[in-house]
Amino acid sequence: MTAPADQPRSPHWGRWVWRAVLGTILIGVLVVGGTLVRVWYVARQDDRSQADVVVVLGAAQYNGKPSAVLEARLEHAVTLFESGVADHIMTVGGRQLGDNYTEAEASELWLVEHGIPTDRVIAVGEGVDTLGSFRATSRAISEQGWSTAVVVSDPWHSLRARTMAKDAGIDAWVSPTRRGPIVQTRETQARYILRETAALLHYRLTHAPVEGEDNGLR
After folding, report:
1. Is 16 helix (H, G, I), strand (E, B) or coil?
2. Cα-flanking dihedrals φ and ψ of residue 146, to 5°?
3. Are 85 and 175 in contact (CB under 8 A)?
4. Residue 212 and residue 189: Cα distance in Å, rounded?
5. Less CB within 10 Å around the terminal CB: N or C of the chain?
6. 3-state secondary structure of 151
């Protein structure tokens, strides 16, 4: 019996599928890794160029008293104001259920108590997440006839904050605080870098805030 003629080899679909899977994983690693590096890099920037206003993003407050995270941001805002970076400070942030004060009001009270003239502080008591805060901030800045802002938040939050501010129509740059509980230990820093990397990727994919994000965590 004669041997059958050689048949054309069937495509190696398994090999191509495996290559596609590896390629997808590699792209994912590069995107996540690149975003993580950018979060870390922008966190190290401190742009004190003159602006129309210093914007302080909200964080938790307790019956009108800023949390340690928020107080560190406010202290940095005072430094920028006294250095002539801007003539006004805008505090931002709404209230959580049961609160007597908005985060913006608590921040305003603290700033006035620490020597900032009342007419130089503008409280925007809206926003329970970063995106909502910047949408409210954009309206308030426009009402004042301004366009530029230097944003004060924590280092690891800076890239996402700047991205959302620009998307809201604000010509913004960042000057993060270097104090507060979020920057005290390497373990805390690493946790927030990873958290902000995930949050920024989520925003870029959905243009929506992170579910469950609140001002106490910002």
Report:
1. helix
2. -100, 170
3. yes
4. 20
5. N
6. strand
Are 129 and 210 a contacting pair, CB within 8 Å?
Answer: yes
Does the pLDDT of residue 150 top 90, yes or no?
yes
Q: What's the rounded mean pLDDT across residues 115-130? A: 96
Residue 1 has pLDDT above 70, yes or no: no
What is the strand order of the sheet 171-174 is part of?
121-124, 89-92, 53-56, 148-152, 171-174
| CB under 8 A, 24+ apart: contacts of 186-195 | 189/156, 192/154, 192/156, 192/157, 193/36, 193/39, 193/40, 193/43, 193/156, 194/36, 195/156
Residues 42-100: pLDDT tens digits? 999 999 999 999 999 999 999 999 999 999 999 999 999 999 999 999 999 999 888 89
Q: Compute CA 79 distance to the chain's CA centroid, rounded to the nearest angstrom.
A: 21
Tokens of 129: 């997440």
Which secondary structure element, helix H or strand E, spans residue 166, and what is its range? helix 158-167
Q: Which of 144, 143, 126 is nearest to 135 (CA)?
A: 126
Among 127, 135, 151, smallest CA distance to 42 is for 151
